[in-house]
Amino acid sequence: MTAILELRGVDAAYGATEVLRGVALEVAEGGMVALLGANGAGKTTTLRAICNMGVRVRGEIRFAGQRIDGQPTEAIVRLGIGHIPEGRGTFLSLSVEENLRLGAYLRRDRGVSADLSRVFGYFPMLRDRLHQQAGTLSGGEQQMLAIARALMSRSRLLLLDEPSFGLAPILVQEIFRILGVINREERMSILLVEQNARLALDLVGQVFLLETGRVVASGPSQQIAADESVRRAYLGQ
Amino acid sequence: MNMQALLHQILSGLVNGSMYASVALALVMIFKATHQVNFAQGELAMFSTYVAFTLIEVGVPYWAAFVLTLGVSFAVGVAIERFIMRRFRNASPLTAVIVFIGLLVLLNGLVGWIYTYTPQKFPSPFDPSAWYGTIYMSPHEVGMIAVTLVVLAIVFAFFRFTKLGLAMRAAAENPQSSRLVGIRVDWMLALGWGLASVLGAVAGMMAAHKLTLEPNMMSSVILYGFAAALLGGIDNPWGAPIGGFVVGVLENIAGAYLVGTQLKLALALFVIIAVLLFRPSGLFGRTVVVRV
Amino acid sequence: MASAEVPMAAPAATAGSTRRVGRASRGLAALFVVAIVLPFLVSDYYVAKLTQVVVYAIALVGLNLLTGFSGQISLGNGAFYALGAYASAILMSKVGLPYWATPPLVGAICFIVGYLFGRPAARLEGIYLALATFALAITTPQILKLDALAPWTGGNQGVQIVRRVSPIPDQISHDQWRYFFCLVVATAMFVIAWNLVRGRTGRALVALRDHSIGAGTMGISVASYKAVTFGVSAMYTGIAGALGALVAGFISPDSFEIFVSIQLLVGGVVGGIDSLPGTLFGAMFIEFVPDLAGKLSKAAPFALYGVLLIVCMVVMPGGAAGLVRSARAWHARRSLHRTRS
Known about the structure:
The structure holds three protein chains of three kinds.
Chain A: E1 3-14, E2 17-28, E3 32-37, H1 43-50, E4 56-63, E5 66-67, H2 73-78, E6 81-84, H3 96-103, H4 112-122, H5 124-128, H6 139-152, E7 157-161, H7 169-185, E8 189-194, H8 197-203, E9 206-211, E10 214-220, H9 221-226, H10 228-235
Chain B: H1 3-34, H2 41-57, H3 62-83, H4 93-115, H5 139-161, H6 163-173, H7 175-180, H8 185-211, H9 219-232, H10 239-258, H11 264-278
Chain C: H1 15-37, H2 44-69, H3 77-93, H4 102-121, H5 126-144, H6 150-153, E1 159-160, H7 174-198, H8 200-210, H9 212-217, H10 222-248, E2 250-251, H11 258-271, H12 278-296, H13 301-315, H14 319-340
Antiparallel strand pairs in C: 1-2
Helix pairs in contact in C: 2-7, 2-10, 2-11, 2-12, 3-4, 3-5, 3-10, 3-11, 4-10, 7-8, 7-10, 11-12, 11-14, 12-13
């Protein structure tokens, strides 16, 4: 399978502060990959580097074989990457429906309404709250709205920054289950950044471990989960 | 208090209010998108009005000139954002204020240079003996309110029901998330400026017949516009036109019964300061509810 | 915003800084000689213009203290300029005071009014304060035209001011005498401002501007300092207005339109909004550049002025003082490299 996302020798900096050094990672097409690591390791920076959001980047970033480093964010998104940032990026003063329609902003086909119905299939509570102001939704509901928005965009690759943040465990399990379903049914490749290593390991196929801006370990999730030294050092088990 | 006279003042206030409503909405649009106050809004409106004047002088019929002016005004607004304001998007408030003042002086000077400061008559498209004139309002005044309401309705419909309008609202609220859904935020800001310029042009063309056309025509209108925008909530597009009509009526009533016509402008000053000190979010200032 | 010239602690006595102080006092002495000699070398027309430059410089000190040092953007200092002018005119024509007695009184009046305005204004931040002061400036001519005040202000007619002030008109013309009077007042006011800025007050103002919340926790009453600064700014601007009225000989409500406030802000920023020496450059800019712009393009001085403002903000947002600072820093880096290699 070809890689839908490839990073090679990526350095990233905010102004003069270097955050990433020589990061290399890959997401296979149709695959699910987790980027794990402690606070401050550079996980969020990696996602921001992929979408060119306020980070200076050196190195190669390829999406479906095409180089995207240095391009404006809107153009990168246009190619088929969806990104749910830290804080979920909800348009708080707009309604749930408007948020969803914004997810479909780039689409010119007629399938938008049909997709709305499908999205309600995954997240029925959104249909009930369709005209509610998005800022009044709970954290879990906003996370579902964010994923629904990404679904509306029919992206090929979805980047998620800490989807479990601030959510009750039972909600996180549900969201991760849905991510798995989406990955299979919608053929959406997923790269997720997480602090909650255990749930992530259960969900994804590949793991990359980041420490102070460098990839220090990588491999299939079962292998990483089973590795004693890695578990102790990074997964706190 | 004579009821007839009071009614006259109120209606007359609504007429002025229609000008303030357009200007206030223009101010709020730019503030919402950029968090900057467009001190040059009045001069921009005045400039557009002179464009209309030129077209009419060379023989273009009124409504054709009106529409053409809206187009030119839009283009000018977009150009100003694209080539001037974009450089100062992240500038300090002081630098931004100087740039707006520079724009104000530039537009005023340009018009004064081309047309001199002599007041000119600006025609009205509304026949002075038309059926919809009453003892309270001349046909032009009725027309002013009608045109303003139509334009406001179109603008609101645009924002509420079109994809582009939604994208502009999104870009104003959350530029980063907007980029992440593929919206070209830079262009949305330019479009916002274009629209604000158009709103100003409408206000200017309606006002010019009443106030007579001269480069300093909008200097008091802009002040009332500021008062209206603050009153309605400086980031509330619905509050702005309501604020405009309220300020118009207030101006007339206070001028007729309370402070006399000489202090009407000071009333605007008073409203501005009172709102800023006691209720900075205005009457309808929106608070976005966020669950943590 | 460019950093202020006020050092946070007493500067260490390095060879560089002593050289700088020496250079500065030589420059100041030269400036003084020029200032005193110049009026005898040029026509009375230019003497009047130079006097106006001095007057503007005083007003700009007032503006810089307010906007540059305490960070309060004011588009309304023209109102205080008008207040000072009218107060002086009324004191001279109705109360009969001589021209040299009005500045202190005008200063006191304007300080009080400025302070009273400054107390509520202290609660307004950045763009909102700019808006409120903008409104004040636009409203000023209308207030001055009020019928109720006409017995004092002369309404639309305005007020004439006695200008023939030289006791030795054959040796020193009236224009020249006025110039020297303004120069004396300006020197005194600059010295006061210099001391204000160098001392504890100055440091407090800078702290206020850059970290108003932090300043509050360090025991500086933010509202008080801001209001007092407003008062001081109004005082300087008002005295300048009084002197300006003397120079013009006649004031009316239309002399104090929004453009005065705009000019003051422009002069402040172009010179460097937190620089005292910059006020001289700024004052010369606003007095002479509109004329120059008029010469370049006979009929479009304002349009050119507007373009100049915008270009200025692109090219030198820190004003002339900012340019000087950058030049010094660049020069210092170069000489550092030279001594190293």
